[in-house]
Design goal:
Blueprint lengths: L2 H6 L3 E5 L5 E5 L15 H22 L4 H28 L5 H18 L6 H29 L14
Antiparallel strand pairs: 1-2
């Protein structure tokens, strides 16, 4: 299938989150942060918002039928930002002595491996966008939220700001 024909099949992407939640992402609609995605740790929430903005940049360039050069640059930017964010988040987990540190780190590697493979392929950009978005939401709502729960359950001091969306 040619590059241009592929995008005609990419107007609506269906997401089947492991949590059983079904979302429909319209390729023409901007992906925006939702307050319920905040985990209450300012730094992590802020980094998640930037991550989502990069995902939306990819969506927007796919929608515009941009060149592979532009798309691959954004994929690379997502990959590099993910590396930064994962190191930042993992350092925080190490600092708080998070018991599921290794499992959390392994989940991060899954995304990085997939990005590394996908950045060389033209034929599955919508699938890549679906994977990144689904992984991001699922990981944030199922795994990252456990960090906050751990801190609260173990009486660890931390200033939370759940839900304001302005951190």
């Amino acid at each position: 299938m040619s590059f241009n024909k592929y995008f005609r099949h990419c107007n609506t992407i269906f997401f089947n989150l492991k949590s059983g939640i079904y979302n429909i992402m319209d390729i023409n609609k901007k992906i925006t942060w939702k307050a319920e995605w905040n985990i209450g740790i300012n730094r992590i929430d802020f980094e998640h918002k930037i991550f989502l903005e990069l995902i939306d940049s990819l969506r927007n360039e796919i929608k515009k039928n941009s060149t592979w050069e532009i798309l691959s640059r954004i994929i690379r930017e997502i990959e590099k930002y993910a590396e930064f964010h994962f190191i930042s988040e993992e350092n925080f987990l190490f600092f708080i002595d998070y018991p599921q540190y290794i499992e959390h780190q392994e989940a991060h590697y899954i995304l990085l491996e997939r990005l590394n493979i996908a950045k060389h392929k033209v034929d599955d950009l919508c699938e890549l966008l679906e994977f990144i978005y689904e992984w991001f939401i699922d990981h944030t709502l199922k795994e990252d939220i456990k960090i906050t729960e751990y801190l609260k359950e173990n009486g660890k001091e931390y200033h939370f700001s759940k839900g304001s969306g302005n951190e």
